[in-house]
Amino acid sequence: MDVDECADSSTCSNFGNTTCNNSPGSYSCDCIDNYKPIQNEIACEDIDECTDLSVPAGRRCDTLTTNCVNMPGIYDCPCKDGYQTITGNEFKCRDIDECKTEALIEQNCGINMTCTNSPGSFICECEFSGHEVDETALPKICKDINECHIPDSCPEYSSCTNFDQSYSCSCDDGFSGGDCTGDDCRFHFCEDIDECAEQLCDESMECENLIGSHSCFCRVGLIEEMNKCLDINECLEDNSCPEHSSCLNAEASFSCTCDKGFYENTCEGLKAYECADSSTCSNFRNTTCNNSPGSYSCDCIDNYKPIQNEIACEDIDECTDLSVPAGRRCDTLTTNCVNMPGIYDCPCKDGYQTITGNEFKCRDIDECKTEALIEQNCGINMTCTNSPGSFICECEFSGHEVDETALPKICKDINECHIPDSCPEYSSCTNFDQSYSCSCDDGFSGGDCTGDDCRFHFCEDIR
């Protein structure tokens, strides 16, 4: 008779997580449910059903909708947030449609919001522009977007005012052109007002335009009193001129003339008389005589330069000479440089206008900026497109072309009968407003047509 070794509870007690199974003439210590043998040991360890690929696919937790939780000898598949259990299926969950009913929408999204369901979640969007969702509230609510906290909502040199659903920008004092509301503000700029052009300073004072402001000041040699500039008579002050000289007062300045026989400026010691003679440098073109103690030099006058290997000077062509500082060169894109003896000018090219305070560069004239300018340049029934230094007029109706000789430009009918191959061979062309027609000559047929359709017609001989 077989001995049941498993009747003794200590038979497999030395081997962890096992159970004793009797067999005829023998027995075995097998792993309990949800445990597996430990390699090279007579013992068992827990099966981690969350990672062990030996678990049948139908009994694994669905990774998209559940969070797998392993425990000694067992495991669980609780639903992820936004999912709910499926009756009869402990391994998978289904999405909760938070947007399914009005009650759920108001519970999750609140009023004045639209709800869009997504796997495991939902999205609330505000119905009114200028609002954003407050994700911290439950139910979520729509709160006004403070565009004034968003960088570059308003142009530079302006102040931002937020209000429900939108905002406004107002140019700072000393600026204009940028007052606007909402998204339109992205296309506005606050430009500095040239207060000097408005003659805000007294005529006796100099005006300097500043960014957002201006300054009224007196020239050297004048003193300010009651917002006016008065001349200072420097000749009444001690030591205005050196010894051996006479003082001559002038508005905002004075001059000292050395007595005969004394050097200029210092009026000390006897001077050389070379420059006193007007003929001293007369043989050297475009020079001026500069006296120095015991000598003199014939130097180039302003805006002239020495001619190599000659004691003479030639005009500096500021339009081509690269020695002219970059900031004082005429802008080649917007101006035409005109050189003249001793001077040069940067007149604006056609389609450009001067920039206050900048004599070397011009800015584009937007001929399409206002309705009055459009009608002046393009005329009626035309669209105007601005381009750098120019503009383009296009007719709004088909069958017309722009008459570039008229001012303002006008749309004139295109006479298609003057265009080769407008009508098929053996036909006559008749032009009319916006189109034309073709009629087959006597003895031909099949080519009568109107407009662009005539390209596909042919006049065939009637047999």
Automatic annotation (TrEMBL):
<feature type="domain" description="EGF-like">
    <location>
        <begin position="231"/>
        <end position="268"/>
    </location>
</feature>
<dbReference type="GO" id="GO:0005509">
    <property type="term" value="F:calcium ion binding"/>
</dbReference>
<feature type="disulfide bond">
    <location>
        <begin position="12"/>
        <end position="29"/>
    </location>
</feature>
<feature type="disulfide bond">
    <location>
        <begin position="171"/>
        <end position="180"/>
    </location>
</feature>
<dbReference type="InterPro" id="IPR049883">
    <property type="entry name" value="NOTCH1_EGF-like"/>
</dbReference>
<keyword id="KW-0325">Glycoprotein</keyword>
<dbReference type="InterPro" id="IPR051145">
    <property type="entry name" value="GAS-SHBG-PROS"/>
</dbReference>
<feature type="disulfide bond">
    <location>
        <begin position="440"/>
        <end position="449"/>
    </location>
</feature>
<keyword id="KW-1015">Disulfide bond</keyword>
<keyword id="KW-0677">Repeat</keyword>
<dbReference type="InterPro" id="IPR009030">
    <property type="entry name" value="Growth_fac_rcpt_cys_sf"/>
</dbReference>
<feature type="domain" description="EGF-like">
    <location>
        <begin position="144"/>
        <end position="181"/>
    </location>
</feature>
<dbReference type="GO" id="GO:0005576">
    <property type="term" value="C:extracellular region"/>
</dbReference>
<dbReference type="InterPro" id="IPR018097">
    <property type="entry name" value="EGF_Ca-bd_CS"/>
</dbReference>
<dbReference type="InterPro" id="IPR001881">
    <property type="entry name" value="EGF-like_Ca-bd_dom"/>
</dbReference>
<dbReference type="InterPro" id="IPR000152">
    <property type="entry name" value="EGF-type_Asp/Asn_hydroxyl_site"/>
</dbReference>
<keyword id="KW-0245">EGF-like domain</keyword>
<feature type="domain" description="EGF-like">
    <location>
        <begin position="413"/>
        <end position="450"/>
    </location>
</feature>
<dbReference type="InterPro" id="IPR000742">
    <property type="entry name" value="EGF"/>
</dbReference>
<feature type="domain" description="EGF-like">
    <location>
        <begin position="2"/>
        <end position="41"/>
    </location>
</feature>
<protein>
    <recommendedName>
        <fullName>EGF-like domain-containing protein</fullName>
    </recommendedName>
</protein>
<feature type="disulfide bond">
    <location>
        <begin position="258"/>
        <end position="267"/>
    </location>
</feature>
<dbReference type="Pfam" id="PF07645">
    <property type="entry name" value="EGF_CA"/>
</dbReference>
<feature type="domain" description="EGF-like">
    <location>
        <begin position="192"/>
        <end position="230"/>
    </location>
</feature>
<keyword id="KW-0964">Secreted</keyword>
